[in-house]
Write a structure and sequence with these properties.
InterPro entries: GyrA, GyrA/parC_rep, Gyrase/topoIV_suA_C, Topo_IIA-like_dom_sf, Topo_IIA_A/C_ab, Topo_IIA_A_a_sf, Topo_IIA_dom_A, Type_II_DNA_Topoisomerases. Keywords: ATP-binding, Coiled coil, Cytoplasm, DNA-binding, Isomerase, Nucleotide-binding, Topoisomerase. The protein is an alpha+beta fold. The protein contains 19 helices and 40 strands. It has four domains: about 120 residues, Topoisomerase II, domain 5 (Alpha-Beta Complex), CATH 3.90.199; about 80 residues, Gyrase A, domain 2; about 120 residues, Topoisomerase, domain 3, CATH 1.10.268; about 325 residues, 6 Propeller (Neuraminidase), CATH 2.120.10.
């Protein structure tokens, strides 16, 4: 044996341990990089990337005819992916499932499986094509925007990464188990990720806390409820975290018993298996009180009905279900992906920056490609222009040449043309000699010069580059915008606390200086008409009760600040106090910034999609968002409206079916009244649209309100204490965005306009002056006047001036009518 080894120089002696170790490392890196983990830039594993590229090469776009899945799989394994057809088809199927993908990348036709765990039909029976989203992932791939590498047998080229305009890794998430590591990235809402990316472009030094004002958390395609924000924060900060996801349920009341209905299940939960599990636990008496379980789901959505026995309590049964079944699951977030051929755990900020860097590279390479193409075409057109200017001489030169080579060389020598230009002249058809064709060549050349200038400017300017990336992201957001599916609750224990608190009527008072309290409604027993009423609360000398309403303890109060930040507070979180107590400062109940001022306080019983929240800013911007956008309650607040640097919020109102029109008044005495339909609903973090344009410099919005009936009266007040009541119909109805009409005739004696409120004769008007004085006026004493008038003196402020106005309860308090309709409505 030793003689054989010594005579063969190709055989080497190696330690078997070293050989196994080296082979295993090679295998593990192959699995990590080449199979199991996604790329941090396009968010795709190799198999998904190869499927999309193969479909692109086959021409199976979003508007093309469907093609057999077997044909697509055949192309993938034959050209790019040297693995089994089952693995490829399974990956294709998953990309077509709306319960697996937040934004489907494959448009499937046929049976592609179900949330009950049913398998897809065989690939010979199904058909597929790309979606518009996958087209955006492949957009510009033909413009040398990404590197191509050899396929497994070196016969073809495939993309190393896709140019993706969509932040796919975060939008669709990813999960996979490699050798010694795993990834589990949850899906997110596209709108939120795009807003975070745009903010990061504008503010490169942004911190995680800033970005979480846009990205609330995961958004699963199956909906559900995430309990606890801490796990999300930890995952975004470190790359690892655990979140608790519950099924979304509601209780239906029958005559004799309750029915629990499951509307949404946690992500990756098999619904059929969940129904079997519940039925089994009920049969074995592990969970008491369940009479029957039925799956009534259809194409409209999930509906699993759990009928309870007569004496069963739905809350107790529901808690047992969450504890014992897959109605509550834990999702372990691991933000692990491949970057520079190496696996790494990333933070949210790092993933967003990696995507932006990828987009910058793609846009730069695309611009270079288009610039070179434009220059090449301009070079040819320059030759054709020379040819047209010397056409007779060129024709003679060509006719005198013995062959094409001699003609080309003659052109190059005589006119200093390049070989490409000379060939283009030789290839030119005689019809290009007509006057119209000559003009086309000249026009095309001038357009190309402009395009070359534009492309060159992009490559020289970081600002222009960022603007292009931002604009493309906005286009993606507009194209694929969707509502949030997964609700995020602030913390896990808050739900249990609310279950223990009875939902009963309570009176909430909010003072101008920010003191709040609640008093049980029963404390205000009804008095006979003419009674003196009961004191609703003492205040400091420089304070007064501004908001006063009846709500239930489970209702939510929305506090909106001048910075556009919105904070929530459950009514039961407000300390209960006696009728004569001052209350507690609201800054001790919500985490409001030191430089923020509460501009609007609104209560709501629900976050129904039939309602909207309308915002009014100082610069005349009006924004309307669906109220359901603000239902994820947390005390640290969220961004409710994006404000310009020199802008701030003036007020906000809840809009329901009773609101017909919007009224905005300015400091310089102008106003505009327009239909509420002029403002369409937009996303939570959007900026809004122009409600009023200012006729004069240094003007700004002083106040705004809503109108339900044009016979309603509006009260406008100026700095010098002049005011008037005017019917809404006197202000001409027009479209939003105009300069409006005169709201109040202003003179040096009146001063500028300071505010507008709806007239309610059951309330008083409170005026605050620049020196801190509070002046209360009975609204019934204020006279009506026409639109283009100054009004009458409401209060005499002499050298002082009014700075703000507000409605407040009469000193003879309306609590005596609390059980009737004598109190403000929750959305007043």
């Amino acid at each position: 044996m030793s003689d054989l080894l010594s005579n063969n120089e190709d055989i080497k002696e190696v330690n078997i341990e070293d050989s196994v170790k080296e082979s295993y490392l090679d295998y593990s890196m192959s699995v990590i990089v080449g199979r199991a983990l996604p790329d941090a830039r396009d968010g795709l594993k190799p198999v998904h990337r190869r499927i999309l590229y193969a479909m692109h090469e086959l021409g199976v776009g979003a508007r093309a005819a469907y093609k057999k899945s077997a044909r697509i799989v055949g192309d993938v394994i034959g050209k790019y992916h040297p693995h089994g057809d089952t693995a490829v088809y399974d990956a294709l199927v998953r990309m077509a499932q709306d319960f697996s993908m937040r934004l489907e990348l494959v448009d499937g036709q046929g049976n592609f499986g179900s949330i009950d765990g049913d398998n897809a039909a065989a690939m010979r029976y199904t058909e597929a094509r790309m979606t518009q989203a996958s087209e955006e992932i492949l957009r510009d791939i033909e413009k040398e925007t990404v590197d191509f590498v050899s396929n497994y047998d070196d016969t073809l080229k495939e993309p190393d990464v896709l140019p993706s305009r969509i932040p796919n890794l975060l939008v669709n998430g990813s999960n996979g188990i490699a050798v010694g590591m795993a990834t589990n990235i949850p899906p997110h809402r596209l709108d939120e990720v795009v807003e975070a990316l745009i903010h990061l472009i504008d503010h490169p030094q942004a911190e995680l806390e800033d970005l979480m004002g846009f990205v609330e958390g995961p958004d699963f395609p199956t909906g559900g409820i995430i309990y606890g924000k801490q796990g999300i924060i930890e995952a975004y900060r470190t790359g690892r975290g655990r979140i608790r996801v519950r099924a979304k349920t509601h209780i239906e009341k029958n005559k004799t018993k309750d029915v629990i209905v499951i509307d949404e299940v946690p992500y990756q939960t098999n619904k059929a298996r969940l129904v079997e599990q519940i039925a089994e636990l009920a049969k074995e008496k592990v969970i008491e009180g369940i009479a029957e379980v039925r799956d009534e789901s259809d194409r409209e959505g999930i509906r699993v009905v759990i009928e309870l026995k007569k004496d069963a309590m739905s809350e107790i049964v529901l808690n047992h279900l969450f504890k014992s079944t897959a109605m509550e699951t834990t999702f372990g977030i691991i933000l692990l992906a491949i970057h520079n051929k190496e696996p790494k755990i990333f933070t949210l900020l790092e993933l967003l920056n990696l995507f932006l860097n990828h987009r910058k590279t793609v846009v730069i390479r695309r611009t270079i490609f288009e610039l070179e193409k434009a220059k090449a075409r301009a070079h040819i057109l320059e030759g054709l222009r020379i040819a047209l200017d010397h056409i007779d001489e060129i024709v003679s030169l060509i006719r005198a040449s013995s062959d094409a080579k001699e003609a080309k060389e003659g052109l190059m020598a005589r006119f200093g043309l390049s070989e490409i230009q000379s060939q283009a002249i030789l290839d030119m058809r005689l019809q290009r000699l007509t006057g119209l064709e000559r003009e086309k060549i000249e026009n095309e050349y001038q357009e190309l010069l402009k395009e070359i200038e534009r492309l060159t400017a992009i490559l020289r300017s970081e600002e222009k580059l960022n603007e292009i990336i931002k604009q493309e992201l906005i286009e993606i957001r507009e194209k694929f915008s969707t509502k949030r599916k997964t609700t995020i609750e602030e913390d896990y224990e808050s739900i249990d606390i609310e279950d223990l608190i009875p939902n009963e009527p309570t009176v909430v008072t909010m003072s101008h200086r920010g003191y709040v309290k609640r008093v049980p409604l029963r404390s205000y027993e009804k008095q006979n008409r003419g009674g003196k009423g009961k004191i609703s609360g003492n205040t400091h000398d420089d304070d007064f009760i501004e908001s006063f309403f009846v709500s239930n303890t489970h209702d939510t109060i929305l506090f909106i600040t001048d910075k556009g930040q919105l904070y929530w507070l459950k009514v039961y979180r407000i300390p209960e106090a006696g009728r004569t107590a001052i209350g507690k400062a609201v800054v001790n109940l919500i985490q409001i910034g030191a430089d923020e001022k509460i501009m609007a306080t609104i209560t709501t019983q629900d976050f129904n999609e039939d309602k909207s929240l309308m915002f009014f800013t100082k610069n005349g911007i009006v924004k309307r968002s669906n109220l359901s956008e603000f239902k994820n309650i947390r005390s640290v607040g969220i961004r409710a409206i994006n404000l310009d640097d020199n802008d701030e919020l003036v007020t906000a109102r809840i809009i329901d079916s009773n609101v017909k029109e919007i009224f905005v008044a300015t400091y310089k005495g102008m106003c505009i009244r327009f239909p509420v339909e002029d403002i369409r609903e937009i996303g939570r973090v959007a900026r809004g649209v122009t409600g009023i344009r200012f006729k004069e410099d240094e003007d700004y919005v002083a106040g705004a309100t809503t109108i339900g009936d044009e016979k309603e009266e509006l009260l406008t007040v100026s700095e010098k204490g002049i005011g008037k009541r005017t019917e809404a119909e006197e202000y001409r109805l027009q479209s939003r965005g105009g300069k409006g009409v005169i709201a109040m005739k202003l003179t040096p004696k009146t001063g500028q306009l300071v505010g507008v409120v709806n007239v309610d004769e059951s309330m008083d008007l409170m005026l605050l002056t620049s020196t801190g004085k509070m002046i209360r006026v009975d609204m019934q004493t204020i006279r009506k006047a026409g639109r283009n008038t100054s009004g009458v003196i409401i209060v005499n402020v002499s050298d002082d001036k009014v700075v703000s106005i507000a409605r407040c309860p009469k000193e003879e308090n309306p609590e005596e009518e609390a059980s009737d309709e004598g109190l403000l409505s929750p959305e007043a």
